[in-house]
Amino acid sequence: MISTSGVTLRYGKRALFEDVNIKFTAGNCYGLIGANGAGKSTFLKILSGEIEANSGDVFMTPGERMAVLKQNHYEYDDFPVLETVIMGHDRLYSVMKEKDALYAKADFSEEDGMRAGELEGEFAEMDGWNAESDAASLLIGLGIARDLHDKQMRELSGNEKVRVLLAQALFGTPNNLLLDEPTNHLDMESIAWLENFLMDYEGTVIVVSHDRHFLNKVCTHIADIDFGKIQLYVGNYDFWYESSQLALKLTRESNKKKEEKIKELQAFIQRFSANASKSKQATSRKKQLDKITLEDIRPSNRKYPFLHFKAEREAGKQLLTVEGLTKSLEGEQVLSNVNIVVNKGDKIAFVGPNGFAKTTLYQTIMGELEPDAGSYSWGVTTSQAYFPKDNSAYFDGVDLNLVEWLRQYSNDQDETFLRGFLGRMLFAGEEALKKASVLSGGEKVRCMLAKMMLNGANVLIFDEPTNHLDLESITALNNGLIDFDGTILFTSHDHQFVQTIANRIIEITPNGVIDRVMSYDEYLENEEIQNLRKELYPAEMIEK
């Protein structure tokens, strides 16, 4: 159990946290959410002791152990992978090293023997004899093959290091677990493994993540940071979001009878309770949902961008035909004989482990790259708006404020009109006069989305649009694309984003294209497709 009493943190005149009193209990998983800059990572650092609050205290049940997902990927470069994982349990690792040092002494004394006996007893109590096998199991579950376990950390790629550090945090079943963006750089199979691990976890988990599917799977509670306070809500992210939006709607409809509000809210709670699965976490969540009173559901103060894509003209039946498209970059073949026909109304998610292939396809059909062989043709009634994975060329060295920046892409040059679009993306008042060159990653993405809305295209192409966005912006974009009645080609690692938007899945493999009209979950669960993937990929590239 972890709790805080009166925690306050100020930077100058700005109070990031003000008199925070909160308790996180064992057996529950808390999703810590808040807008960019609200202080999610900072609060985790206060709980772990890495940052000291100006006032207030953090308490942890005596005798309990806390583990934190480390963010410094170079901290353990001089250590073997397996040893790095075991270092997650400080006391166990300390006993191991002292024990080994004693046995290595040439003049092993009687006193050393007494000390070694004490250490052996403590080592056994901590299940030390299974430490290496437990660490190996964690690594394998997170996609680190056994032949990497004895290598030095410096020999691993950045993505592999992240997985090792996650295994380190999970090692030894700590009582309290703090995870900041644990799904970053994990493939779908590793995320599913982590979800199952946390759903059966009996300690206290506090997690920051922009992956809504992950939060929905593992969280029993949402801890919402807003205006320097943290408010706890029972349920997962979807329950928090939908209940807060419903409460806001009912609050605004002041003429609605109280009895009708009560019935609507009660029906909503019952629907979510009925959907709880059989996992330990979900069962606990269902019991808590059943106890919710109407007073527990409150409107959210969070601001959401407004995203509405409207095509200026309707596309005809012929949209895009790709025939035999082949492309090599830097001597490596990226696309090989790709054939695709895009139909009106398709919302196609391009999936699979090779992000380079998907980006190359988009760049080619948008005319940024010339194919080595094959061709593509757009229908004469189509118009395209493209969101590239790397948007730096639109902002680097650009000495324009946001109104001037957006004016470059608009037929209507009126400042009031442009400010309206910027306001939808939360750039209101003076914010609209910020220089484009100093924007954060998330702010740049919101500007690119405003540019795309202005375009009025009937075909939208997105290459990883959810990168750098906060949960509010991801949710708004998700809803905007669900409502769009044109055609979409997109790539995203956000499971819920893909599942709720796509009606067709295409995977470009090294040895052919898999193309199915179905949802993403159906694609992942289809045994025939998964067997086909094993045939089309080298074994080390398979991603479920």
What can you see in these coordinates?
- With 544 residues, this protein is α/β, with parallel strands linked by helices.
- Among the domains are: 238-296; 318-541, P-loop containing nucleotide triphosphate hydrolases (Rossmann fold, 3-Layer(aba) Sandwich).
- Helices cover 39% and strands 22% of the residues.
- It has 19 helices and 18 strands.
- The protein has helices at 40-48, 81-86, 90-103, 110-125, 131-141, 158-170, 188-199, 212-218, 237-252, 258-274, 280-290, 355-365, 402-407, 415-424, 441-455, 471-483, 495-501, 520-525, 527-536, and strands at 2-11, 14-24, 29-33, 55-60, 66-68, 176-180, 204-208, 221-226, 229-234, 318-329, 332-343, 347-351, 373-378, 384-387, 459-463, 487-491, 504-509, 512-516.
- The strands form four sheets. Strands 5-6-7-3-8-9 form a six-stranded mixed beta sheet, sandwiched between helices. Strands 14-15-16-12-17-18 form a six-stranded mixed beta sheet, with helices on both faces.
- The model has no long low-confidence stretch (mean pLDDT 89).
